Amino acid sequence: MLGKHTRLFKILFVIIFIKVFILLVLLCVNSSDIHRVSRGRTSKFINDLLIDRRQEPNLEERLKLIREEMPSFPLEELLRRPRSVMPNQCGEAPDFMNIVYHNEYWQELQIQNTSFYFFGAYYDDRKTVPKTPLVRLLTMINLYGSEGEVDYPIVYCQLWYKNQVEPLIVEAIDHKIVWIWGGASRRFFPTLISCPLPKPKGGKAEVPEMVSLVADRCDRAKNLLRVVHELPEPSEVQQSKSARRFMVCVKAMDFPYTDMSWRVIEWLEVLRMLGVDKVVFYDAQMHPNMTRVINDYKTNEPHFVELRPMSLGRGEPHSPRHFHHYAMSADGFNRILNEMIPYNDCFYRNMYKYDYVGIFDIDEVIMPLHNVTNWNDLIELGYRVPDYERDSKGCSDWASFCFRNAYFPRYPDRPKVFKQLPSYYYMLQHVERTAEHCDRYSAAKCLHSTKYAVGLHNHFPLYRAKTGECEPKSIPIEYAQLQHYREPDNKTRLINPVTDDNIWRFQPQLQQRVYAKYEKLGFLPNITQMQEAEEQRILDDEQKLREAISLT
Ligand SMILES: *[C@@H]1O[C@H](CO)[C@@H](O)[C@H](O)[C@H]1NC(C)=O
Ligand SMILES: *[C@@H]1O[C@H](CO)[C@@H](O)[C@H](O)[C@H]1NC(C)=O
Ligand SMILES: *[C@@H]1O[C@H](CO)[C@@H](O)[C@H](O)[C@H]1NC(C)=O
Ligand SMILES: *[C@@H]1O[C@H](CO)[C@@H](O)[C@H](O)[C@H]1NC(C)=O
Ligand SMILES: *[C@@H]1O[C@H](CO)[C@@H](O)[C@H](O)[C@H]1NC(C)=O
């Protein structure tokens, strides 16, 4: 009995074993089928993923990337510095582990209760500017007051030259606060500090590579900044003496939720037609579509559009973008004080490459009128015509040419002026402006001469050379105006607008160029698809109706 059962179990066991084996084999075959993709008849075995197979960048390439990420930190220069056999007598060179960073792009110096945050250092040897050559430091400091009123702690500059072990040490002079309308506690103020350099005895002065700021002459510094000295590339040299070069600087782009991408395209193309050679944006947080637009320009025309890193000087973290947007709006005064940093960084980086600099928002355009259609001719005209209300006889040059503001509001309830033109050409479609221009001070914008500007606010130069140039000239509105595509603060001004279609002088090129960008970047809806969807919707509705009728 027992033996019989055992044999039966054995047979049963073998049968189960065979079944399980067959099942496993089948499963294996099936699962290997999962890795096969069949297209038509051919069936290919895929052994590869779409991953990046490029080689890791070498150190040189990485240094270039780091330079773009942290423009003011001179890592390359630091790494190739000559090492001294003996430690420096005075002012030992900072090494990598000695640096104190602040909010990614800044470095700091604390002297008792005064904090200095450094954003950039720039070499200034302009002949038209007094006390040059010098290195200027763009700094945020927690001190405010007029000259002589504030006691700045003494600070020394240690200037590091190429292939020299010992620094040149000078006392920092000159604290120019790029803000003249009063201070407040807990804020940091944009301030330009100077490190005066010895005047060269004939020939050119040597340009220091790096600079550190210290409280005592011989301190080992905890900060190290690249001294920016960017001369024009051959492509950036002006073709002729009469062809001036123009640059536009834009503050940190803070548009996380509103899609202004399409407006930027039209704005950039207008500027290009007016003769602008370069537009520099600073990055805060942008809608992904806007990032796409800026990146497209940046990648394809790096000589035309630049996007630079930026963070708030007081230290509010900028990478969490929703937070950063909040931080920028939480304290308007803090935000405005910080706006002086991109303006002046942009100016000092580029002052040798361009003749005039404009500081604008993306809703502002300086528009020459009548037969003048570019900024070069506008400057030419600016020299000839009188100031609109002041005597400027006896002047041969001006720090800036300024243009009075005219609002071009949205007027959402007024009918389209150009019925045949799509609304997605914003400026071409918005050709109604407030009847009155603002006065010379309110919301005016200027083209600043790089020969004379020293400290720039978004409307006027707060500091200028004063070596022969006159104060900014306000150009009469017969010749040009600042077109400001926003709502006026004073709503009474909205009444009785006038038609002003000066921008149509740039047709049809402007429309073509904007359209080409819209098309390239996929802004234009697919009309065939929209029509098909519409037809389908009608068919569906009819079907529903028929069903409803048959039910009743
Ligand atoms: C630092 O302290 C000095 C002396 O107590 C004072 O005069 C100065 O205003 C303080 N500065 C700041 C930034 O708090
Ligand atoms: C515009 O017209 C004026 C007056 O006719 C003339 O003097 C000037 O040269 C013209 N400007 C340009 C840029 O054509
Ligand atoms: C607003 O604008 C109107 C029309 O230009 C002007 O008469 C009025 O004084 C302005 N109001 C203020 C508060 O500036
Ligand atoms: C703009 O953003 C919206 C929302 O994310 C998206 O649907 C659209 O495709 C974007 N447009 C372009 C041109 O990328
Ligand atoms: C638009 O959509 C249609 C239908 O889906 C498609 O055949 C066509 O290729 C699309 N056109 C473009 C430019 O994407």
From TrEMBL:
<feature type="transmembrane region" description="Helical">
    <location>
        <begin position="12"/>
        <end position="32"/>
    </location>
</feature>
<dbReference type="GO" id="GO:0016757">
    <property type="term" value="F:glycosyltransferase activity"/>
</dbReference>
<comment type="similarity">
    <text>Belongs to the glycosyltransferase 92 family.</text>
</comment>
<keyword id="KW-0808">Transferase</keyword>
<keyword id="KW-0812">Transmembrane</keyword>
<dbReference type="Pfam" id="PF01697">
    <property type="entry name" value="Glyco_transf_92"/>
</dbReference>
<protein>
    <recommendedName>
        <fullName>Glycosyltransferase family 92 protein</fullName>
        <ecNumber>2.4.1.-</ecNumber>
    </recommendedName>
</protein>
<dbReference type="GO" id="GO:0005737">
    <property type="term" value="C:cytoplasm"/>
</dbReference>
<keyword id="KW-0328">Glycosyltransferase</keyword>
<keyword id="KW-1133">Transmembrane helix</keyword>
<dbReference type="GO" id="GO:0016020">
    <property type="term" value="C:membrane"/>
</dbReference>
<keyword id="KW-0472">Membrane</keyword>
<dbReference type="InterPro" id="IPR008166">
    <property type="entry name" value="Glyco_transf_92"/>
</dbReference>
